[in-house]
What does this fold into?
Amino acid sequence: MFRMTIGTVGSLWIPLMVCSLLNGQATGQEPHLAYAYPAGGQVGTTCKVVLGGQHLKEITEVHISGAGVQAELVSWYRPMTRGEYNQLQMKLTEAREKLSEQKRGSPEESMVAFTAGVSEDELREMEVFRERDRDPKRQPNEQLEEELTIRLTIKANASQGKRELRLVSETAVSNPLWIHIGPWTEINESEPNDTTPNRVQEEFPMIINGQIMPGDIDCFTFDAREGEQLVISAGARDVIPYLADAVPGWFQAVLSLTDSAGREVAFADSFEYRQDPVIFFVVPRNDRYTVRISDAIFRGREDFVYRITLGEIPFVTSVFPLGARCGSEVDVEIQGWNLSETKFSAHLLPCGKMRQKQWFDLPQKNGLSVRFPLQVDVLADVFEAEPNNGQESSQPVSTRANIHGRIDSPGDQDVFFISRGGQLVAEVLARREGSPLDSQLTLTDIDGNEIAFNDDHEDRSQGFQTHHADSLLEAFVPSSGAYLRISDTQGNGGKGYVYRLSLRSADPDYEVRVTPGSIVARAGSVVPITAYALRHDNYHEDIELALLNAPAGFELSGAIIPGNADRITLTLSVPAVAPEKPIPLEMITRGRRGRGSRAWLTHPAIPAENMMQAFIWHHLVSVDDWTVSVSGKPRSPAPFRIVTTSPRLQLQRGKVLLLNVMPTVTNIPVNELRVSLDDPKGVTAEMVTGEGGGLAIKVTVDAEEASPGLGGNLLFRAYRETTPAATDANPTPSPRRTDYGYLPALPFKISER
It folds into this structure.
């Protein structure tokens, strides 16, 4: 009744994150993934993984990005619901009463179950229900209740790192989860281990997998030898970065380490500025140690999944400089733990092939490597030169350069003199690249009068950042010059407090994120997607969107983000004949450099997942690819199309606009055709017919609710409405609706008149 064994299905696919549903609309039955446990595996092994979530019974495939990992469906399970429990309990009660009347005594429970027709499996599930129901800390959550067990076979040569896993049914793709593939032995916790620790005496390094339930503390004990330099790193947000329905909106892990006498020898509730806690422990003597993990406020449930890495592994805590100019060669120094090699000469890609971020690997003597990124830019590189703590010792700099420096000690500040007047934009890169520096910028004139100050600036392109601690300052520098100071807000400092300070004039620009990152649609359908404009330095131009080298049949409509908008919903039409495999798409964007300019800015649109945190906050989390999977079952095409010669509809407040409609089939009476309209506020639509039988869509713009100057797209849904003939049994039958889905988006703008 509650368990199902599934035939083996293997699949390898490289999709991306999040999904759009069949026909571009939510059905309420799309598969939702809440957690994977364990959230990874070792190369060269086979392991079972439990995927928790909702609407998982109809899953047919498991898709994992990259090569070398095979996934097989094993079984599906859902705990008994309260309604199912009550029904069985009623059957047992009726059977018990019946047997008691017949035998004048208390019947055996096995006979009661047999008489009621309740199986042993159902009895076990009833006990599971009672146990869960008795737990006062457990809150029912239907988004976590189903379990889909899969088997992962990981090849020895499989590439290591994070993979994206998603589930596919006949009509939809789930949201993604991360699966971690690594080189070390992996073990799973064994409950109960809150007071009696699990013994984990395996060869280090190793991975410990576990889940924190309400009020839970998981403990693990191991032997360590004097002089060992252990890194104990908890992956919690690194496994599931955001929890949509929890406050705080993530598993806030805490680590502690005690010796055999119970004395706490190390503690971490975060690694200073990083999202997950890390302990670095130099073992003082041979002893047995215990590591404990819990949530900071003792929450917990199935999706509080963690991975503890334990061993003498290399760990990078700081990189200097944080970046360099494209096409250059730069000497890089890294800091951290268990590092045998700390210096590296990095060759940056030529400017014509530059990426915003370039990754490098630095091998260590133990056969492992550390991996770190460098930011790539076109500005010249300048290195801070001490002493430069005040106006008298300030360092002269250009207004077009990247300054690489450190806040060397607590209370330190670096001062730079800008001699050239004019518009200045100063931006700090530190926290976004792992530096503990919580920067603040102060600009003063030569007499010490403050011109501008900034502490924190939100960077919406950083989807995993919840504390935006980097500074951005925009101001006008007088012709006599000005002093720019950078320091730590809390007065902290040290060798790891590195920064890159970019100085430039205002350079209006933009980035675009497109969601959802993975789309499933019927052949021939029209799917709504959303493009977000991240505008920099007061960029207010229209941004045009286009598909790049897309296969025939894929087409965008309404592909312009107006200059006064930060996002727009447009539509993607997919071909009438379904391709055999998922199609990777690319979107290119362009916008004028400025009002009246003939020059263009051109950027790729980055696919992203719109992730919610703690019921309210949303984060655009970038992913690698944008993939469309087209179902082989085509949907019925809309029986009409809208005819317009205007590239953008001009709507007037308090007015009506009639859109001509051309029927595309002849067997549907025009009086049965209907439309509905998604947004904007104050605009409504209905299908109307003329005296001669002509068809039109009447668009009404409310004089009060519609916002003047608003631009965007009109998204119409087409459907047919018929009313069955009345019968004696049903004298007033309800209308029946046949839904044809969305029509291609139509751009609009609202004016006063």
Notes: The two ends are 64 Å apart (CA to CA). Residues 380-504 form a domain with the Jelly Rolls fold (CATH 2.60.120.380). Residues 82-103 form the longest helix (22 residues).
